[in-house]
TrEMBL record, chains A, B, C, D, E, F:
Name of the protein described by the UniProt record: Carboxymuconolactone decarboxylase family protein
Database matches in Gene3D superfamilies: AhpD-like (1.20.1290.10)
Tree of life domain: Bacteria
Annotated organism of origin: Cohnella yongneupensis
Pfam families: CMD (PF02627)
Domain Carboxymuconolactone decarboxylase-like: 33-117
Length: 125, 125, 125, 125, 125, 125
């Protein structure tokens, strides 16, 4: 049963954040192995797996929040990739960034767009 | 042309945040009348009016960001209403709040849920 | 096994944040019953139960962080109580608040002290 | 010599934030008397007393920062009063709030204007 | 008329943030061309152009806010340059940074001073 | 007497943050020499020297707060070293980071762990 939280989480984590998520997990295993398990089990196994909100909407929420907070660039990069992986278009991601200019200020929007450009370039979008 | 930014913005603002938006606008007219115009023109006339992201997704992004920031309760209340007005279900809003526990911490999620409950109660949901 | 995460968490949650934690749990059950379970299981069942850091040090960390963030007053109140419950003195809590003036600014320290005074008064300290 | 830091600070603190500063000091004396001394000595005795920036510019900086941070309403209220006390006009304060909409988002600006209106009303401005 | 918001904004943007602003605009044109227009039109065309607060005071407010927020280093660099361009002295900027130690903590002040030193060095100040 | 605040502070600063603190002080002396004095006198001479909270608990509080804020990586690095210098184990620091996942979100915890790993590696821990 408990194992299932990890298994369910890993399936969704791989689907959403793919290879970048694996990097995060590998480096966690070294310094805080139990936190690697928690990262798979709670955010992905418990939350993302829930049926009440589709994965694309979940990634819109996460990209918006991380852009607004402005202090989590590595995770924003992972979730811009995640948003693209679950069906967001490049255009939609740019719109989210612009909109964050309203709610968190122009610097948050500009820095979000800088991160988005890096992700788009890496994927040849 | 310039007039249109206000007109376009007011239509969308009324559609999204309705009566609560009117309260904000009325109280702004007193202390900073030009800012009332800017509030209609930039967030709603320039941003929300753009075709690249549907209104429901825009409200998911805004509710997520304001919950994560945790320092804008009046605006979060307005946009939980806005999310409901453009098609989000109560369930979807609760899911966004829970998910923000992952990205901004449990206090952000709990305070977001408290605000959501107030909005749901006021609308008899 | 999975049940144990909740049971383990509830024991620690009751020990640390007592009656105030029950209030939080009760109001969550209404709006987001699964989040009530997650709140018991992840923060308390998974994290606070770990042997690597004693409960008093954990509450020092939490009170410091919530004071520095400055946007989670209800949770700060809960954890000032929690700190007292697991062995912090009133004096130690005041010292943490003062020290946060260095790392998050005087307003964070002053607002933390205001919240601490409310808790101390309610407990007749 | 050390006494002078308190004396110098108290003179400037009284000049800038006046009666509201006294309230803060009185309530601090109860819970953290040494922090009352530090509040007078460091921010006002050490920083505000320095010749490199005039008091009006200092209050512009403080009002801008507290509006942008958005989690220190009691201190923002004190410093809107302070800004008025050292020569800022009501109009200038409103401009600072509007400008923070650019750098910290519209919610920060709107909440800053709400606090400003309360201060202006209390002073019959 | 609408064109004028861009023209007015571009004049002020060039005056305040000069070459660094051009870099921002050029990179925006690639990923979000309409946001380049909004960046010129709203912050500079609508806000900075207003007569109620002089440009030097506006840059003091912006430098203070970005230093306090601590999550917008590229924009802080642009506006330390902007502050120097509209009449702030090196000394005044250092004073703003030190003062932010009071309102946002010593780390914010120290990181602001690090950014200021980079700007001063690049301008041989 | 006043001299003593600097002397007392320097002793504690050297004990807690050692060589890294010296680097900070040296670079401050260049751009803001009086702020170097204030950094020694207020955080270390006034606050850390106080008897009400032991140095290990103070560093737990500071590491927790800086991890939660997420916008002060250089200072977090200094204080992870500081925590180790005054008796925290590697394990305890990892526990603090994991716990901040609860109060400030998983990105804050992950970025804190990344910084911790850099410090541990540099010390061959």
């Amino acid at each position: 049963m408990c194992k299932n939280r990890y298994e369910v989480g890993l399936d969704i984590m791989n689907k959403v954040v793919g290879e970048l998520g694996s990097h995060t997990r590998e480096s966690l295993k070294e310094i805080a192995p139990e936190f690697e398990e928690m990262l798979v089990e709670f955010p992905f196994g418990d939350i993302y797996s829930r049926p009440g909100l589709d994965l694309k909407s979940r990634e819109i929420a996460t990209v918006a929040a991380l852009t607004a907070l402005g202090n989590a660039t590595p995770q924003l990069k992972v979730h811009i990739n995640g948003a693209l992986n679950v069906g967001c278009t490049k255009k939609e991601i740019v719109e989210i960034m612009m909109q964050m200019g309203v709610y968190a200020g122009f610097p948050a929007a500009l820095n979000g767009l800088t991160t988005a450009r890096e992700v788009f370039n890496a994927r040849n979008l």
